[in-house]
């Protein structure tokens, strides 16, 4: 899984003093299982404490902009190029740094996709199962972080929260190739044991995030918006939505382009464009995460229309 511009993990070796300090903080702030925010006053990097937590205890981590989550419920706020990332589930990781990327990225004000990962590589640079306790001699951990290159200059960072979760309901996921990865999923709601506030300065790679061209995903988002806004009929399916339009060659071309763009980063998506009963019918089907994304956009457009009607009525 060699990537251009991947980043080596920082030195994670712990001193006896650090282990003792982390153990005390765990007993006082995490083990009580109260879900409260940890008051972190240690001089050691927060990522080092988080890595110690997941290495030494049956815990797992989730990074978020939301600062006061009492319970994680099933859902998916976006969709992923990898099939394992499209479950209607709660996602977390057994890595101490990776969740910081999701916590400190200012997602509500960020436009584009985010690409990231962490993996173990053997001495030959080949990806192996993500299991630090059984990593062979010469193995090393690698990271990769990338954002829409147009957004990088404004430094889209903010404070966020790392949630510390019990691992018992989570299962470790596998990549397409079969190896265990650093991503875990729970298919039942989860209540956090504790949470730790983090800022951009806590994320070790904040100044090493790379940029990528997001023209395709931005075009895909624009096409999705146009297709939803132009539909005169919308029907929910078990695995997606059916949209109906007056017969129109321009709309047909737009729907076909949307399908090509979408399949470029979600190969499980299925888009069918047909003429039926004097209408143009477009069916968009795929994983739960795709249906959820469509539902959010449909509701957003409906809410916007209701707001416009309300404003018009006041004039």
Description:
- The mean pLDDT is 90.
- A hairpin with a 5-residue loop joins strand 4 (114-121) and strand 5 (127-128).
- The strands form four sheets. Strands 1, 4, 5, 6 and 11 form a five-stranded mixed sheet that branches.
- The protein is of the alpha+beta class.
- It has six helices and 15 strands.
- It has helices at 16-30, 46-56, 98-104, 215-230, 249-263, 288-314; strands spanning 7-8, 59-64, 90-93, 114-121, 127-128, 140-148, 160-166, 170-174, 180-186, 194-198, 210-212, 233-237, 240-246, 270-276, 279-285.
List the helices and strands and how they pair.
Layout: E1 7-8, H1 16-30, H2 46-56, E2 59-64, E3 90-93, H3 98-104, E4 114-121, E5 127-128, E6 140-148, E7 160-166, E8 170-174, E9 180-186, E10 194-198, E11 210-212, H4 215-230, E12 233-237, E13 240-246, H5 249-263, E14 270-276, E15 279-285, H6 288-314
Helix pairs in contact: 4-5, 4-6
Order of helices and strands: EHHEEHEEEEEEEEHEEHEEH
Which blocks of ≥5 consecutive residues have pLDDT under 50?
none
Sheet-strand content, in percent, reads: 25-35%
Largest sheet: 5 strands, mixed
Per DSSP, the total helix count is 6
Radius of gyration: 22 Å
Give the CA-CA distance, first to last residue: 59 Å
Shape: elongated
Please identify the structural class as seen in this structure: alpha+beta
How many distinct beta strands?
Answer: 15
How much helical structure, as a percent, in the residues?
25-40%
In round numbers, the mean pLDDT is 90
In short:
The chain is α+β, with helices and mostly antiparallel strands and 315 residues long. The chain has helices at residues 16-30, 46-56, 98-104, 215-230, 249-263, 288-314; strands at 7-8, 59-64, 90-93, 114-121, 127-128, 140-148, 160-166, 170-174, 180-186, 194-198, 210-212, 233-237, 240-246, 270-276, 279-285. The strands form four sheets. Strands 1, 4, 5, 6 and 11 form a five-stranded mixed beta sheet that branches. It has a four-stranded antiparallel beta sheet with strand order 12-13-15-14, with helices on one face. It has a three-stranded antiparallel beta sheet with strand order 2-7-10.
